[in-house]
Amino acid sequence: MSSTSDRTVVLITGANQGIGYEVAKGLLAHENYHILLGSRDAARGAKAAEELDPTGKIVEPITIDVTDDASIQQAVEQVESKHGRLDVLVNNAGINNEVEMYSRQIQNEKEGIQEKPDLAQLRQLYRDAYEVNVSGAAITTEAFAPLLEKSAATPARIVFVSSHTGSLGLRIDKLSNWYPRLSNPSFPIYRSSKAALNMLTLHYAAKFQAKGWKVNGSCPNLTATNFSRGKGRPASESAVNIVRLATMGVDGESGEYTDENGVVPW
Ligand SMILES: NC(=O)c1ccc[n+]([C@@H]2O[C@H](COP(=O)([O-])OP(=O)(O)OC[C@H]3O[C@@H](n4cnc5c(N)ncnc54)[C@H](OP(=O)(O)O)[C@@H]3O)[C@@H](O)[C@H]2O)c1
């Protein structure tokens, strides 16, 4: 077996369950990857890593809460001291925290109840969602960029796990299959956070273009995880395009937003 230094070192945030976990599993099927399985909870991360790799040689748990700068910094230090570099970063951690509020609004509308908006609660939901989905991904990327500079892989790669629901293009295209769902004015916090994440994807693609890094966004589609309350397709299917973007070579695209069927409009 090759040593860690011969392997492509990839960090996936929020990989103790759901799509991130399946991305780790998908990467295990590729030779020569060393997988840093990110989890904000150390015990959940250790359990998931052990499930995937009982030998502990290929899948390594790493604690990282993307809303906590000290936690991000500790993760950077762990990767630096153990591996000296990072080759691939998958910004997967994400939340949708407005399901309860949205369900209540629908119920109230049905019952003809005029609800007074709880502005403080709304502001907190925006803060919390943007902290994970937007600032969390940006700050994690900035924090790991110096280790990506030392990447032994050609090219270094960054993947942002976004969503079709963040696409302005699909939102306004009346001919798109997505239009009926996206034109429904639901989940403004989550959707706008993913639209912001898309702009970050383009930002980092441009910022790192001269270095030859591949920076792309991926749309998982509705996927049966805790996030979606079990609705949608298997997470293994949603991991396929993320794994493709995380493993591609110099001929791969950069600054694109795709699912497994190809390009998705921004
Ligand atoms: N499922 C879908 O239908 C769907 C569709 C489109 C896009 N997506 C996107 O796909 C990504 C993964 O979602 P999923 O469906 O796999 O959801 P999930 O099963 O709920 O997993 C989300 C992961 O993110 C982690 N996380 C949450 N807050 C975090 C934080 N502050 N720091 C670090 N990690 C944190 C969670 O940790 P804990 O286990 O500790 O909670 C969990 O590991 C998200 O970016 C989501 O927006 C999902």
End-to-end CA span: 42 Å
Are any ligands bound, and if so which? NADP nicotinamide-adenine-dinucleotide phosphate
> pLDDT below 50 for ≥5 consecutive residues: which ranges?
none
Which architecture per CATH? 3-Layer(aba) Sandwich
- Counted by DSSP, the helix tally is 9
Mean pLDDT: 96
Number of structurally distinct domains = 1
Order of helices and strands: EHEHEHEHHEHHHEHEE
How many strand elements?
A: 8
CATH topology: Rossmann fold
For the biggest sheet, the summary is: 8 strands, mixed
Radius of gyration: 19 Å
CATH class: Alpha Beta
- Write down the overall geometry: globular
Task: Note down, in words, how this protein is organized.
This protein is α/β, with parallel strands linked by helices. It has a single domain (4-263), classed as NAD(P)-binding Rossmann-like Domain (Rossmann fold, 3-Layer(aba) Sandwich), CATH 3.40.50. 46% of the residues lie in helices and 14% in strands. The protein has nine helices and eight strands. It has helices at 18-28, 42-52, 69-83, 99-110, 119-149, 168-172, 179-182, 188-207, 235-247, and strands at residues 8-12, 33-39, 59-63, 88-91, 157-161, 214-218, 257-259, 262-263. Strands 3-2-1-4-5-6-7-8 form an eight-stranded mixed β-sheet, with helices on both faces. Helix 5 packs parallel to helix 8 (188-207). It is globular. The termini are far apart. The model has no long low-confidence stretch (mean pLDDT 96). Bound molecules: NADP nicotinamide-adenine-dinucleotide phosphate.
